[in-house]
């Protein structure tokens, strides 16, 4: 009887998607989480549209496609797809190069086809080769950037688009000069609502609220949004000079009929396909969107409390179809987005239903609720993102990486600093270079050998790790784990290993957590570090 499924039949996921019955079972957690993600995503969709020089509606369309369509095509249970700040500079350049937004829509459709091809060519394996320290540095950097970037909106002193994740902004300022300028132009009504919103969110995280079964079902972001609208209406009556100014409120396009919607939609200009520059733009969008997606899903898997593994090639295919549909409907290019995904996880999301619900809410808001949503102060939404940012970059994360040693801390810290002062892709590239430096110092010999245990029980397999196992061996090891069939006993032997990279230890620990669910009996020998990971 075979112990390892043949390569052609091997499933690329370590943990299968839960059956539909589980989606209904987790709805009590997914519905509130979907609402939180919607509240975070709405201004970001609008802001990225503005930053890209595209129609406001295009960002909403992208968010709807990401939530309603890509959530079900993706193998990830918790990632959320939509327009990404990392593509804004590319979009500005693309519109300038091709002349019209409609021509860029045609390029986006082509980019979706390129991503589909990358998925079928199994190019997603590259996502397995980002070191854990770099991914954690990326998460911490995004948390810091969220905090720094939301301060001007929190104070009601920034009128540009809502999300600009790069250090150098399009308005000529940088992250720190924007904060300094905000300190001199505070809108006290916005600031008051922001402070009250933040205090409410902090109270909602306290033990008395979290231990209350009824209160726990209500997301703090919903309380903050409703309260902020009421506070602003109260200010308009009692202290009009403190009322939040229109430019500091959510701005959703007013659509009251199907005719309004069709008039707002933009369609691709297919004549652009006769120009070579269109394909240059398409390949640029496809490659950058794919890298951002792979980085995001790898980060989401690390944040997932259930340690589920996202199949990267399936993710590329899902993103490809999403970009194809988004381009056809007049939307921006989309990626898996870590900010919204982090908000989803922090709000208690369990399955892809939360991302789907967020997409439905975006669609419903566009059709029915724009007049109500346009009353929400941006400072209240900034408070929500401040809490998300803090959870991503807690001091405990820095202390943990420091205790792991220089080979983990330095790539982590360099990634944080590089992203903070450049942008996501450049910062990850710098961090990756530092991580590779440490890897190249190590011995890259074969990670393990695999054989049947010489016993009467043919179900027993022995996987013996070599003297040094680096993160470059992670993909091979995870693939081997995935091919082990149910009913097998696996002896994972690290008694001869002097160094096992932290990324590999994480992969082993994730496999240990799911082995019983897959009917695999796991015996670990000589790998005491796994027990110390604290999962």
Structure report:
The longest helix has 28 residues, at 276-303. The chain is globular and about 75 Å long. The protein starts with 19 loop residues before the first helix and ends in a 10-residue tail after the last strand. The chain is built from 22 helices and eight strands. Residues 1-21 have low confidence and may be disordered. By secondary structure, the protein is of the alpha/beta class. The strands form three sheets. A four-stranded mixed sheet has the order 3-4-6-8, with no helix packed on it. It has a two-stranded antiparallel sheet with strand order 1-2. A two-stranded parallel ribbon has the order 5-7. The protein has two domains: 30-389, no CATH class; 444-532, 2-Layer Sandwich (Transcription Regulator spoIIAA). Helix content is 60%, strand content 6%.
The structural class is alpha/beta
* Portion in helices: 55-70%
Order of helices and strands: HHHEHHHHHHHHHHHEHHHHHHEEEHEEHE
Strand order, main sheet: write it out.
Answer: 3-4-6-8
Largest sheet: 4 strands, mixed
Which regions have little confidence, pLDDT < 50, spanning 5+ residues?
1-21
Number of DSSP E strands = 8
How much β-strand is present in the residues? 5-15%
Distance between the termini: 34 Å
| Rg, Cα atoms, Å | 24 Å
- Backbone shape: globular
The chain-level mean pLDDT equals 84
Q: Supply the number of helical segments.
A: 22
Give the domain tally.
Answer: 2
Keywords summarizing the entry:
535 residues; alpha/beta; Transcription Regulator spoIIAA; 2 domains; two-stranded antiparallel sheet; transmembrane helix; transmembrane; membrane
């Amino acid at each position: 009887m075979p112990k390892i499924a043949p390569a052609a039949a091997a499933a690329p996921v370590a943990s299968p998607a839960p059956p539909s019955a589980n989606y209904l079972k987790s709805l009590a957690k997914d519905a509130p989480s979907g609402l939180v993600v919607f509240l975070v995503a709405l201004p970001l969709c609008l802001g990225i549209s503005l930053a890209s020089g595209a129609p406001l509606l295009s960002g909403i369309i992208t968010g709807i496609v990401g939530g309603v369509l890509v959530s079900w095509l993706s193998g990830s249970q918790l990632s959320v797809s939509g327009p990404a700040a990392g593509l804004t500079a590319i979009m500005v350049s693309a519109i300038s190069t091709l002349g019209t937004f409609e021509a860029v829509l045609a390029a986006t459709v082509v980019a979706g086809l390129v991503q589909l091809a990358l998925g079928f060519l199994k190019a997603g394996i590259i996502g397995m080769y980002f070191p854990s320290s770099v991914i954690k540095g990326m998460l911490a950097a995004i948390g810091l950037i969220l905090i720094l970037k939301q301060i001007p909106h929190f104070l009601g002193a920034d009128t540009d688009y809502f999300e600009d994740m790069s250090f150098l902004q399009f308005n000529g300022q940088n992250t720190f000069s924007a904060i300094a300028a905000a300190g001199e132009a505070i809108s006290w009504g916005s600031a008051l609502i922001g402070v009250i919103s933040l205090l409410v969110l902090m109270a909602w995280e306290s033990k008395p609220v979290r231990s209350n079964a009824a209160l726990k079902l209500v997301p703090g972001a919903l309380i903050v949004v409703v309260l902020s609208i009421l506070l602003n209406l109260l200010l308009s009556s009692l202290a009009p000079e403190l009322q939040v100014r229109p430019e500091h409120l959510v701005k959703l396009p007013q659509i009251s009929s199907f005719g309004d919607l069709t008039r707002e939609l933009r369609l691709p200009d297919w004549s652009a396909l006769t120009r070579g520059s269109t394909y240059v733009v398409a390949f640029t969008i496809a490659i950058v969107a794919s890298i951002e997606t792979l980085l995001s899903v790898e980060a989401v898997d690390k944040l997932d409390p259930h340690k589920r593994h996202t199949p990267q090639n399936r993710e590329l295919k899902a993103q490809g179809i999403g970009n194809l549909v988004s381009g056809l409907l007049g939307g921006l290019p989309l990626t898996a987005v870590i900010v919204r995904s982090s908000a989803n996880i922090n709000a208690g999301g369990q399955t892809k239903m939360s991302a789907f619900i967020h997409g439905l809410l975006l669609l419903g808001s566009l059709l029915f609720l724009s007049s109500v949503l346009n009353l929400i102060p941006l400072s209240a939404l900034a408070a929500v993102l401040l809490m998300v940012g803090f959870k991503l970059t807690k001091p405990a994360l820095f202390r943990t990486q420091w205790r792991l040693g220089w080979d983990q801390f330095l790539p982590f810290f360099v990634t944080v600093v590089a992203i903070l002062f450049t942008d996501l892709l450049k910062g990850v590239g710098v961090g990756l270079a530092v991580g590779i430096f440490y890897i190249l110092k190590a011995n890259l010999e074969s990670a393990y050998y695999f054989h049947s245990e010489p016993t009467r029980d043919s179900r027993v397999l022995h996987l013996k790790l070599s003297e040094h196992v680096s993160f470059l061996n992670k993909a091979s090891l995870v693939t081997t784990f995935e091919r082990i069939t149910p009913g097998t006993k696996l002896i994972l032997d690290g008694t001869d290993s002097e160094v096992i990279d932290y990324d590999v230890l994480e992969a082993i620990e994730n496999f240990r957590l799911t082995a019983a669910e897959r009917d695999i009996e796991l015996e670990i020998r000589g790998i005491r570090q796994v027990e110390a990971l604290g999962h």
